[in-house]
Each structure stands twice: as structure tokens, then as C-alpha cells.
Write a structure and sequence with these properties.
Blueprint lengths: L16 H11 L4 E7 L2 E6 H17 L7 E5 L4 H12 L3 E5 L5 H11 L3 E4 L5 H8 L6 E4 L7 E3 H14 L3 H8 L7 E4 L14 E4 L1 H14 L7 E4 L6 H14 L2 E4 L7 H8 L3 E4 L1 H16 L3 H18 L7 H13 L7 E4 L6 H9 L4 E7 L4 E5 L12 E2 L5 E4 L7 E6 L4 E4 L10 E10 L5 E6 L4 E2 L5 E2 L1 H8 L5 E7 L18 E7 L1 H10 L7 H5 L2 H15 L8 E7 L18 H7 L1 H8 L10
Helix pairs in contact: 1-2, 2-3, 2-6, 4-5, 8-9, 11-14, 11-16, 12-13
Length: 620
């Protein structure tokens, strides 16, 4: 496979985001830096416009008293003004913490207080209750609002107008501010999930990242997964998270590619893809699983000559996928229609982030011509750590270490699974308010995994979530759940064994030694299935109680069990009609699901499934 030529900025020279943005605005002023998707409409922002907006906001903040080392908090969805505010604040030497407005109010307030934030930016999706809560903190000097403002609040446009007047009076002041900044400054702050620990310390909530090493990491990622200037990159993940901070914001700055964002959110992800038709895409496993499921159901629904051509195409693709070749006529005749249906016909690289994708799902999507890769990232280690290369994809791995990074496995067991450790390349400066962490020190990620004989990292699960199954054998629930979601009819699953973390005071009395699972139906695929089986219009609750659906899921689980060791097979399951996992009490700061809280949330379903009260039959 021919490798793409990479043209990256020299991050040894352009070692802060303000310098990098100024350089891009100078080299490609009229090229598109960002695209904001708003429903069916899109707004394009050039590098020159983005740089000018950042400069105005920066000088306005400086006039209000923002100083080196102060903390600025951004609470809002991905948008160009979010990026401009981050760059502008860093040009004044501030540290910037980006928070998702979808987090609970208490979490946002607590993190803002812990950071001692002096300035807060709020956009329209932040409600008035949040604005009042943050504005009432003693540490806060000023709240900048995208809309109307009062009291200690200032509108975003008023801040930019103040900066515009300063630019007119002192045109080189911003350049002087940028020149004072150092690449070794910790310009980025990132909120950590509550379970994260750094060097065995007690859990804290904010970590500091140094600018120059973070941009160098972004450059390494672009070298591993090349993207060219003006190529469109899209991600639905918040830019304030460690993973997207590097792979989205910084990598696009380094490569001068175009970053697409959806500030209003709320739209269907597949509709956004069809509108944007990106060249590069990063998404969580759920989106890739949905694409695979819909593709499988549609392929299974063909008949006659079309079905025969499709089967030949699948056989050719099966042979080509292991050598990373295109499937030739099969791609043109069959799979190209599928890719166009999802807006992926231009895709050069797609990445899975935020959890594992089942090997069979990754394999199937690559068979259909979607150039999909896994990577692994850890917030404590500064975001992306490993990645597949275009010519080196192992379906059960997360790829090899990025240039400049070293990995090791500590406390490995008999099958070589242990704690994933990353040697700090200088990105991580330590916990906010804690001791400084230097380059060369080893960071524990909190994840378990192993290294295969080719240097690929295989991520198993969170160390604390690996549980006990039958006869003392261990199981990784996250991997098993991804295998279940590889079925086109299973949208989600929660696997439970003997060592499920029950709420304090509740017993775990298994009816057998095996594993059990709560299963949620995949709504999109089940609608098509219901239509084909004369159940059009049936509610999720009605489908969950239908014997035919129970047999369908039973067959799917039996098929998946055939590929698992006996001790890891699912012996019992229960279908739940409604999916209400995404509640504030079941989400971490990274919008991942917290297993302990999920088990507590669904404890009544779990107990009915895996316990056997006296003289009663097995539930489920």
C-alpha cells in the first residue's frame, strides 16, 4: 500500500497554538480552517478569520486583566468561537479547561471551583441556572456569554469589539503577547474521569498538558494517519477531551486540514455524515457499530441476481481484507452504494475512539471498503497513545505506539495481561495543584492489556472492571459487550459475572457459574426486522416481549458464544426495551458509562436475571 505524503508544521518552531494558528493564517489565509454544520446549512471560517477572532478575544481578555497562569473555562459545544477563545486565552499565557455543557451542573461547578477559574465562557447551550451557579463563584472575575449578559457578565461580541479597538491602536501587541509564550507552558487543562489515578495518587479531577509536546504528539498522529491541507475532518467528540484535543483540534492545526463541527448538536449523526461527506472521521464504537449493523441488514435483504452478485463480492472482499487491498469490482458494484448511503464514499481514514470495536465489526467494515482503524488513548497520558497504520492493521489490536512514545505492561498474569503503562513524553505536566510530572516518568493508564509479538497493543478493559467468571477464571466485560454489539440486532449490552460490583449491602447470588447479560435491541435494525415479519409499528416493549425476537437474540448470542471460550459464554440474558443508560448518574466526565453505577442503576433487572430465589424459575 502506497503511503501518503505528510506535510506538517514544524512543531519545534510553532510550539504553541497561537503561533501555529498565526502561521496557518499567514500561509493559507483564505483556505477553510473550520466548517460549522447547522442543520442543513454550513458556515465556513477561513484561517485568516479564525486568527483575527482569536486575536480580538485575546486582547479583550488582556484588557480585562487576564494574566499568565490564570485559568479560563470554556463551557460549550464544538464551534469556531470555542477554538478562538482557547487560542486567545493561551496567547495571554492562560491555562484553558474545556467542559462539555452536557455534564451535570454540580460537576461543572466543582471543576470550575477547583481550577480557580478567573474567566468563564458560556455558549447558548449552557442554561441560565449554570450561568448563575458559575457566576456566583468567588474566584470568577467575569463571565463571557454568547447571548445577552448582565451584572458581571459580558457578551462575546462586546469582548471581541474591545479587542478590535486595541488592534487598531496597537497592531503588534498580539504578536508581542504570542512571543512571550513558551512551548513548555501548561496551556491545556483536561477534566479526568473520577476513577482515573496518576502514579497511584488519589483521584483528582484536572490534569495539565504542556503545549509543545502536545503538538508534537498531534504531529506523530498525523504521521501515522496522514491527512492533507484542506481535507475535511469531522468528529462528534468534545474538543475539550484529551483524545479530541489532540486528534481533532491540534492535529488539524498541524496538518492545516479543515475541522468540521456541529455546534447545535442534537442531529442524527448519520445525517451529519451525509451532509459533510468527510475525508477523515473519528467516532465512538456505537456509530461504527450502527453503520455495520445497517449494512448487514440491508445486504441480507437482497434477493435474486443481486443477492448472487453480492455474495460473490463478499467472498472477494473476504480474500482482500487480510492483505489491506481494495476489493476491486466488488467495491465498485456493491460496497460503493453502501458507503454513499452513509456519506463515507470520500473517506480516507476513519478512527474508533472511546472504547474497543469488536474484531468482527472492524473486519466487516474494512471488507466493505471503509478504511477504518483502531487507536487507543488515555487522558492521563495526554490522549492518543497508539494507532493502526494504513499498512499494519490487526483486527484485535489498537495498533502500535505513536512515534516518541513507549509502552510497557506491568504485573502481567499467566496470559501476559497486565497494567498498561505509558512513558511520559512531556505532554503530562501533572495534576492541577499537585506535583509536576516530568518527561520519562511512567504513567499508569488504569487499563489492562497485553502486547502481541508484533508490538501491537491489545486493550482488554479497565483494570478494576475485569471480573471473575466460573471456576475463578477472569473475564473482560467491555470486550464481551463489544462482541455482543457486533450482532446487527443488539444495540447495547451489560455483561455480569460473579464479581459484579454490587451496591453496598446487596449480595450477588448467581444461579449458575456462567455469565449473564442485559441486552438492548438495536432500534434501527429491529424496525427493518419488524417490517419483514409483519410487526410494523410494534413498540420496543412489544418487540422485547415477542417470542420471535427472543429466539432471534438467543440465536445471535449462541452464534457469538461459538467463538468464545466456554468460561466466557453468555448463559442467560434479558432483553430490555428502553435504553436509559445515558442518565447523569451513569456517566463519567468523558461521557463513558461507569460500570458500578450502571449495575446499581439496573440492579433490579440484574437480580431478577442471575439470582434464583427459593422455589422459583429462572428469569429472562
Amino acid at each position: 500500500m502506497k503511503r501518503r505524503v505528510v506535510d506538517c508544521a514544524n512543531t519545534a518552531i510553532y510550539n504553541t497554538l497561537p503561533r501555529l494558528l498565526a502561521r496557518n493564517a499567514d500561509v493559507m489565509p483564505q483556505a477553510i480552517a473550520m466548517v460549522e454544520l447547522m442543520g442543513e446549512h454550513r458556515r465556513e471560517i477561513t484561517w485568516a478569520e479564525l486568527h483575527d477572532r482569536a486575536r480580538r478575544l485575546s486582547l479583550g481578555l488582556g484588557a480585562l486583566g487576564l494574566a499568565r497562569g490564570d485559568v479560563v473555562v470554556l463551557v460549550g459545544a464544538n464551534r469556531s468561537d470555542w477554538v478562538a477563545a482557547l487560542v486567545g486565552a493561551q496567547a495571554q499565557g492562560a491555562q484553558v479547561l474545556g467542559l462539555d455543557p452536557g455534564l451535570p451542573l454540580d460537576s461543572i461547578t466543582a471543576l470550575t471551583r477547583q481550577a480557580g477559574a478567573k474567566f468563564i465562557f458560556l455558549w447558548r447551550e449552557a442554561n441560565s441556572e449554570l450561568a448563575a451557579s458559575l457566576g456566583g463563584l468567588d474566584c470568577v472575575s467575569r463571565v463571557i456569554m454568547a447571548g445577552d449578559a448582565s451584572g458581571r457578565m459580558l457578551t462575546l461580541n462586546a469582548l471581541a469589539d474591545a479587542g478590535r479597538r486595541i488592534v487598531a491602536e496597537q497592531p503588534v501587541l498580539y504578536d508581542i503577547d504570542m512571543a512571550r509564550r513558551k512551548g513548555g507552558d501548561a496551556g491545556f487543562l483536561c477534566a479526568l474521569p473520577a476513577h482515573a489515578k496518576l502514579l497511584q495518587a488519589e483521584p483528582l479531577r484536572i490534569i495539565r498538558f504542556r503545549s509543545a509536546p502536545l503538538l508534537a504528539r498531534a504531529s506523530a498522529l498525523v504521521q501515522a494517519a496522514p491527512r492533507a491541507p484542506q481535507e475535511l475532518y469531522f468528529s462528534l467528540n468534545p474538543l475539550g477531551g484529551a483524545q479530541e484535543l489532540v486528534s481533532g483540534l491540534c492535529a488539524n492545526m498541524v496538518a492545516r486540514s479543515t475541522l468540521a463541527v456541529a455546534p447545535l448538536g442534537g442531529g442524527d449523526a448519520l445525517d451529519m455524515l451525509r451532509t459533510l461527506r468527510p475525508i477523515h472521521l473519528t467516532a465512538r464504537p456505537r456509530l461504527w457499530e450502527e453503520i455495520a449493523a445497517l449494512s448487514q441488514v440491508r445486504l441480507a435483504g437482497t434477493t435474486g441476481l443481486r443477492r448472487e452478485i453480492q455474495n460473490q463480492a463478499l467472498r472477494q472482499a473476504e480474500q482482500a481484507v487480510d492483505t489491506h487491498d481494495r476489493a476491486g469490482w466488488a467495491d465498485i458494484m456493491v460496497f460503493s452504494r453502501l458507503k454513499r448511503r452513509f456519506g463515507l464514499e470520500r473517506l480516507v481514514s476513519g478512527f474508533v475512539t472511546g472504547g474497543p470495536l469488536a474484531p468482527e465489526t472492524l473486519r466487516f467494515l474494512r471488507m466493505t471498503g471503509i478504511p477504518l482503524y483502531q487507536n487507543y488513548g488515555a487522558a492521563l497520558a495526554g490522549g492518543p497513545v497508539t494507532a493502526h497504520r494504513p499498512d499494519d492493521v490487526a483486527f484485535d489490536s489498537a495498533g502500535t505506539a505513536l512515534d516518541g512514545l513507549a509502552l510497557r505492561i506491568d504485573d502481567a498474569n499467566a496470559v501476559a495481561i497486565g497494567k498498561i503503562m505509558v512513558r511520559n513524553d512531556g505532554v503530562c505536566a501533572g495534576l492541577f495543584g499537585g506535583e509536576t510530572l516530568e518527561a520519562g516518568e511512567w504513567i499508569t493508564t488504569g487499563d489492562a492489556g497485553l502486547m502481541d509479538d508484533k508490538g501491537h497493543l491489545v486493550v482488554v478493559d479497565r483494570v478494576e472492571d475485569i471480573g471473575a467468571a466460573a471456576r475463578g477464571k477472569r473475564y473482560a466485560p467491555k470486550l464481551l459487550e463489544s462482541r455482543l454489539r457486533a450482532s446487527p440486532y443488539i444495540g447495547d449490552a451489560l455483561v455480569i459475572g460473579q464479581s459484579a460490583q454490587w451496591p453496598e449491602g446487596q449480595e450477588n447470588e448467581l444461579a449458575s457459574d456462567g455469565l449473564a447479560a442485559l441486552v438492548w435491541l438495536r432500534a434501527s435494525s429491529m424496525r427493518l426486522w419488524a417490517l419483514e415479519h409483519g410487526l410494523e409499528g410494534a413498540t420496543p416493549a412489544a418487540l422485547a416481549d415477542t417470542p420471535a425476537v427472543h429466539r432471534l437474540i438467543e440465536q445471535e448470542i449462541a452464534r457469538i458464544n461459538d467463538g468464545l471460550a466456554a468460561v466466557h459464554r453468555i448463559e442467560r440474558f434479558r432483553i430490555l426495551p428502553a435504553h436509559d443508560r445515558a442518565t447523569p448518574d451513569t456517566l463519567t466526565l468523558e461521557h463513558a458509562f461507569d460500570r458500578r453505577q450502571l449495575i446499581e442503576h439496573y440492579s433490579h433487572h440484574i437480580r431478577a436475571l442471575i439470582t434464583r430465589p427459593p422455589d422459583s424459575r429462572e428469569a429472562g
